[in-house]
Design a protein that fits this description.
Length: 383
């Protein structure tokens, strides 16, 4: 039975990854659509069978594997934050030392000037003016006195500013050190949980039959490819500079055809291949059919245009201010990397390439490379 599951799993992957080749080789548009639809239906039937036949042991291992992968990503992110925090702490420490030194020196200088002025008395300035030999000398002495007074006032203000800067630097330093301590504790906690989960996972893997272990390996390979594509997407999110800035407002519905609707929402759902609960990174829009026009949701520059793993034919657009959109499973890509597009421009046709069970558009919105719920952007309620 497990051998049959492995065979079915491999058939599904092959079918899902070969839709675009099938479409290209068909002789007419009608034949292309018919053949692709038949393959999609066949893949969907096989998919349902695999989901039903996945053993509870494999599902448990996959759940542990997802927890381990997520924890390792969080640990890597924490490591980056810890490095940045330590660098900030070092910078603040150096600035604090410099400001404190200036503060002490200027405070001492002011004390000495106050002592001199006190001992000399206010009559000194008057004597300088009265003893001027002529009007030019008088004006010159007047400006000297004015500069001395001005210097004293500026010195007082500088000392006050430095005193405030010392306080601000000390407060920021204490805050960063406290944050650093908390994040280090969190990193250690995640590392311990991850280590325990790995031990439990290995114990469960050892209990699997040879056939189950083969299926487990195939699923792992799929996940690794999924992670690789995700890394490429995050890099591409900021690879091209876009002169415009997304400042909010309603994004265009990404399929320019009436009657389309969301078939799978953003958030938690059962993964169609792994058969376990996990997050859906965007929304799926169906009832469009093969070849329906996919348009840019907002002005931007194309940063990805090609075939990317489970996304199939995929386009990504950078809209500025860290906002990007992704369009997956296309039949045909009608744009190219580096091209500037306007809201409503045609960029792709709806298809079923990649990991897909039928013609639909997978649509994502990302902030600085990370997925977020697209609905507020489509409804203009992001602020």
């Amino acid at each position: 039975m497990i051998k049959k599951i492995i065979t079915i799993f491999m058939i599904f992957i092959i079918l899902a990854c070969s839709y675009s080749t099938i479409i290209i080789n068909a002789t007419t548009l009608g034949e292309q659509k018919q053949e692709a639809q038949e393959k999609a239906q066949e893949a969907e039937q096989e998919l349902e069978y695999v989901k039903e036949e996945l053993t509870s042991e494999i599902i448990k291992i996959q759940e542990l594997d997802d927890e381990i992968r997520k924890a390792e990503e969080d640990i890597a992110s924490l490591e980056t934050e810890l490095i940045e925090l330590q660098e900030r702490i070092d910078t603040i420490t150096l600035r604090l030392e410099k400001v404190e030194k200036n503060y002490i020196e200027n405070e001492e200088l002011l004390k000495q000037r106050l002592i001199v002025n006190y001992e000399a008395g206010d009559i000194t300035y008057l004597d300088m003016l009265m003893n001027s030999s002529n009007i030019i000398d008088f004006i010159s002495n007047y400006y000297v006195i004015e500069e001395i007074i001005k210097y004293d006032v500026e010195l007082l203000q500088q000392i006050e500013n430095e005193k405030q800067e010392v306080e601000n630097a000390k407060n920021e330093l204490n805050e960063k050190k406290s944050t650093l301590k908390v994040k280090k504790a969190k990193r250690e906690q995640l590392a311990l949980i991850t280590q325990n989960n790995k031990i439990i996972k290995e114990q469960n893997v050892e209990k699997l039959s040879n056939e189950e272990q083969q299926l487990q390996q195939k699923i792992n390979e799929y996940k690794q490819e999924e992670a690789r594509i995700e890394a490429l997407i995050k890099i591409a999110s900021n690879e091209y500079e876009y002169t415009g800035d997304y400042t909010g407002g309603v994004m265009a519905w990404p399929i320019a055809k009436s009657g389309t609707y969301i078939t799978s929402g953003y958030g938690i759902r059962e993964h169609p291949i792994q058969g376990i609960i996990k997050s859906h990174s965007g929304i799926d829009i169906g009832n469009a059919g093969f070849g329906a026009p996919v348009i840019a949701a907002s002005d931007g520059i194309v940063t990805m245009a090609g075939r990317y793993g489970g996304y199939g034919n995929c386009v990504m657009i950078n809209h500025g201010n860290g906002i990007s959109t992704l369009y997956g499973h296309g039949q045909t890509i009608l744009t190219e990397v580096g091209k500037e597009v306007k809201k409503g421009d045609l960029i792709m046709e709806v298809g079923s390439t990649g990991i897909s069970t039928g013609p639909h558009l997978h649509f994502e919105v990302r902030i600085n490379g990370s997925c977020t719920n697209p609905m507020p952007f489509l409804q203009g309620k992001t602020e």
